[in-house]
Amino acid sequence: MLNITRIEPLLMHWPRGGSSAYVRLTAEDGTFGLGEASPMYGGRASLQIVRDLAGDIEGRPALDSAVLHDTLFHKAIKLGPDGALAGALAAIDIAMWDLKGRLLGQPIHRLLGGAWRTTLPFYASIGGHGARSVDQTVAEVERWMKKLEPAMVKIRFDADKTTRDADIEGDIAKARAVRRLVGDGFPLAFDANNGLSVQGAIRIGRVLEELGYVWFEEPVQHYHKAGFEKVAAALDVPIAAGEQEYTLGGVQALIDAGVGIIQADIIKTGGFTGLNHVASLTRAAGVDFVPHQTQPVIGHVASMHLVATLLHSHHPVEYSDPWGRQDEVFNNPPSPRSGAFTLTDAPGLGLELNEPALTARLEPAAQVP
Ligand code: CA
Q1: From ligand 1's centre to the CA of 188, what distance in Å?
Q2: What is the pLDDT of residues 343-362, one digit of tens each?
Q3: Are residues 119 and 88 in the same domain?
Q4: What HEC string does the chain produce?
Q5: 175 and 43, same structural domain?
Q6: Is pLDDT at 16 greater than 90 in this prediction?
Q7: 130 C-alpha to center of ligand 1: Å?
Q8: In a domain, 349, yes or no
Q9: Are residues 9 and 99 in the same domain?
Q10: Measured in angstroms, how far is the CA atom of residue 187 from the centroid of ligand 1?
């Protein structure tokens, strides 16, 4: 069996701003796989952990992703287990699955057991509405609807997490205006981004029920499980959360609090290996599983490979960045068609890297922390 011979943390800079944390693992025969970590503060902390773990990865069997995942998780657990460590392990695991697919000549969805569907409808995840007027919110949603023809829309308020209930009446007015724009029956979700008190959340949630919203996301602080419990108990609209959970224990606490839609993220929650464990937990609990995902290429495609294999993940997948921010690094970036993405049978993730473009966007190694 081939071993991993090289691991590269790749800090990418994008022309329109922002950065991404990619990882490349190369096997003895030169085949490589790509992964991605959560880009919080550019993902620099995760890439430093990848760098620190390199000696424990090089020389390991290229196909043994689950063993390597748990080996590294337990070895470095005091760096986490939440946050930057989980992101680092996610990037390594995604790269291992991409590598595995390339070595075996199969798409990841097939190696995971087969896809129930390879065409996946998506929802447009549209942020920034907290800072917009009602009219601006409607105009922005309309712009995305025309550009993408999504199967569903989520309006995010991107609240300042240090405030509470900044504009409840405005939030309600925007929820109503967007419902008027799209018409009755079109699926909508509302994401408070942790900006509400329990009482504020219940006020808004009652309006969302009246308006037929599909879910009410992160009404209160993600660490306030008792708050989730009170909101979930008071409302019929499903509460969604989990993008800020990294462990099975964290997800279980949300399920116990009555959260009905779990949204753990493949680039934060241990890649395919970690997120598959979360999927099993949600299946056992009978709650919905709609992975969070806001990175437009590696993270997005990896997440769809997993979702394609899950019988019970029936909501559209998240898509939040249709502006081609990372496209130049790939010859075949994901492209939405009629409200859906379609996975191919190409090996691994199925992404073709444009090596010169990657080099051009790479932060020089000397500047990586
Ligand atoms: Ca969210």
Answers
A1: 14
A2: 999 999 999 999 999 999 99
A3: no
A4: CCEEEEEEEEEEECCCCCEEEEEEEEECCCCEEEEEECCHHHHHHHHHHHHHHHHHHCCCECCCHHHHHHHHHHHCHHHCCCCHHHHHHHHHHHHHHHHHHHHHCCEHHHHCCCCCCCEEEEEEEECCHHHCCHHHHHHHHHHHHHHHCCCEEEEECCCCCCCCCCCHHHHHHHHHHHHHHHCCCCCEEEECCCCCCHHHHHHHHHHHHHHCCCEEECCCCCCCHHHHHHHHHHCCCCEEECCCCCCHHHHHHHHHCCCCEECCCCCCCCHHHHHHHHHHHHHHHCCEECCCCCCCCHHHHHHHHHHHCCCCCCCCEEECCCCCCCHHHECCCCCCECCEEECCCCCECCCCECHHHHHHHECCHHHCC
A5: no
A6: no
A7: 13
A8: no
A9: yes
A10: 16
